[in-house]
Amino acid sequence: MVEKAPSKPKAGDSKDASAASSEPVPMEIVKTPEELKAESDAQLLADIKQNIHFLDRAVATLEGRFTTRALRATASIRKRLNPDILAQALNVHFTEETPRKQSLLEKIGKTSSAMDVDAPAPESGKEAKTFLPEHDIYLSYLVLLYLHDQKQNDKGMSLAKELVQAVQTINRRTLDQLAGRIYFYYARFYELADKLTEARPVLLAAQRTATLRHDDDTQATILNLLLRSYLHFNLYEQADKLVSKAAFPEDASNNQMARHMYYLGRIKAMQLDYTVSHRHLLQAIRKGPTSPASAGFQQAVNKLAIIVQLLMGEIPDRAVFRQPILRKSLLPYLQITQAVRVGDLAKFQETLGQHAATFRADKTYTLILRLRHNVIKTGVRMISLAYSRISLKDICLKLQLDSEEDAEHIVAKSIRDGVIDASIDHERGFMKSRETKDLYSTAEPQAAFNQRIAFCLNLHNESVRALRFPREAGTKDLENAAERLEEERKLAKEIVDGDLEDDDMGEECPRLVGPNILLLEADFWISGEQQNGI
């Protein structure tokens, strides 16, 4: 065998190898679990401090968007809360040993003496930072969230009572959004303890107070909580009276608006007003959140919307049942929809008996029972389209009715309601269908087109109302522009009269630039023409 001679290294290769060997190799720093936990805790405390800063800016500027940012960032903070972090935050941000601080530390199982992190002392020459009521309510709100997530309902209920009393005694507009959250968890803890009726008087009194204070956030939240309380006990008449007497604020958030539309849809559906109910449910679906965290709300609204649409005589779009978030939960409703679409009463009864527990848990069982008549009407329509003449006995067998008399009554009612175009021969006992007419020769296309136009106009009006602008922001600019224009007119008049020259105007006097000079020149020529008698 012939061995291959080793190749000689080139000059460039030796330089590259020496350079590569001389370069420092970066070393991967592996942190211990204790270091990772310390960094995570420090970041969490920094996030809480940032939200406190947002509350300070909200108080200083009287703008609610900073409070909104703080509450929006609280969703990520909530998942990382633990007793140690809460105790550190309370010791850092509470200025002194107040009773509220001690109570909060006891509820999370901590004491102020056991903590290593204390409130920092103020530096020399700097005044101590003011502890605002917003700080107190927000830190208490964090503790309330922790107790709710840990399912400590007794401690959470007692803390919610204290916070409700504190919010009622403080009349500050910067606390409106925080007060709405406090009332929500107040009702939530009572609902978990199955004592929702005990919280209703407090919520009614708070609703009156919020209306007098023009507190839109709290007013919208409490109104939805009261509707939830009434619907929980099937008190639809009282809920309808509350809706008719209390006006829902227009400046409420989209989440509260979506909840309110869902409750209105449920009330109208039980009152047989399916058209209005379906419109409210569509608005709830459109305004509601679409994140995976809100899957429960989307499922509840779509379940009710499907049943209401079936009661209206329409078939829901199949794409609704194919959404990943809704596919599993809407499977029983898909089977109901299929039974209604083909008019199969046997399949409808089978599905109703198989998923009765699910329908009762969703509180749609009563509405689904009303669909039996729709299934029968659909079956009669299918039979009238398939047969020009059919006996009442065969109709009874196909629809699985009890007797031929029931079939005769159902067919007669369908003819009277305009579901089918047929006639009944009572002596011979059969139904005779008439020839089908051209659909476009009737008023149905016009009605469908009118319904779509009304929907588009309603959507446009709501979109225009949703365009929010700062109140009185444009009025100040107009006032300033009018004052500036008036000063420029006086200055131009003095120049025309010869009282001032261009060199006498200092830097503080406004210069005539842009369209203003055109206005002033027009005034000058008009005054000159008036002097000449033109």
UniProtKB/TrEMBL annotation:
Could you list this entry's UniProt keywords, alphabetically sorted.
Proteasome
Q: Which SMART domains match?
A: PAM (SM00753), PINT (SM00088)
Q: State whether keyword Plastid applies.
A: no
Q: Which Pfam families match?
A: PCI, Rpn3_C, TPR_PSMD3_N
Task: Give the Gene Ontology MF terms in alphabetical order.
Answer: enzyme regulator activity
Gene3D superfamilies given for it?
1.25.40.570, Tetratricopeptide repeat domain
Q: Where is this region: Disordered?
A: 1-26
Give the UniProt record's GO annotations in the biological process aspect: regulation of protein catabolic process; ubiquitin-dependent protein catabolic process
| Keyword Magnesium applies | no
The segment(s) forming the PCI domain are 258-438
What are the coiled-coil residue ranges? none
Protein family membership = Belongs to the proteasome subunit S3 family.
Query: How is this protein named in the record?
Result: 26S proteasome regulatory subunit RPN3
Query: To which species is this protein native?
Result: Geranomyces variabilis
Specify the taxonomic lineage.
Eukaryota, Fungi, Fungi incertae sedis, Chytridiomycota, Chytridiomycota incertae sedis
